[in-house]
Amino acid sequence: HVQLVESGGGSVQAGGSLKLSCTVSSSAYSGTSNRCMGWFRQAPGREREGVARIDDSGSVTNYTDSVKGRFTTSKDDAKNALYLQMNSLKVEDTAMYYCATRRYCTTMSPAAFGYWGQGTQVTV
Fold it and tell me: Which of 18, 34, 44, 97 is the most exposed place for a label (fewest CB within 10 A)?
């Protein structure tokens, strides 16, 4: 069983920055190869969308077009942690943000990710 916990959300003015964190339970995460970590968001009345993902090596990242150049995802395996640095935030970035994980970074479809955190709210 994999447990993920997000933190770092809050309210910020347009143009500001926030850094989200996601910690993953080590008992289920450690020793698993080819693990893909992703960030997703869901605004009221809208479908959940993929924002960013990072592969197991940490060297391959992908972003949805609307956040390219503004958001950066990274991870610290020693801490079993995933991060999302969000800069130049816009009103349209307002949403509940979730981290999730699956084997292999072959898709950004939320339906393909089996383990999810509870989410952290970002309001711009």
Answer: 44
20 and 39 Cβ atoms separated by less than 8 Å: yes
For residues 88 and 99, give the distance between their C-alpha atoms in angstroms, rounded to a whole number. 21
- Select from 3, 1, 6, 2 the least CA-distant residue to 83: 6
- How many whole angstroms separate alpha carbon 121 and alpha carbon 106? 27
* Both tokens assigned to 70: 């503004």
- Per DSSP, 56 falls in state T
The tokens describing 9, both together, are 């959300």
Q: What is the pLDDT of residues 55-111, one digit of tens each?
A: 999 899 999 999 999 999 999 988 999 999 999 999 999 999 999 999 889 999 999
Q: Give backbone dihedrals phi and psi of 30, rounded to 5 degrees, phi first.
A: -65, 140
Report whether 18 contacts 10 (CB < 8 A). Answer: yes
Q: Which regions of 43-94 does DSSP assign to beta strands (E)?
A: 49-54, 61-63, 71-76, 81-86
pLDDT for 34 = 79
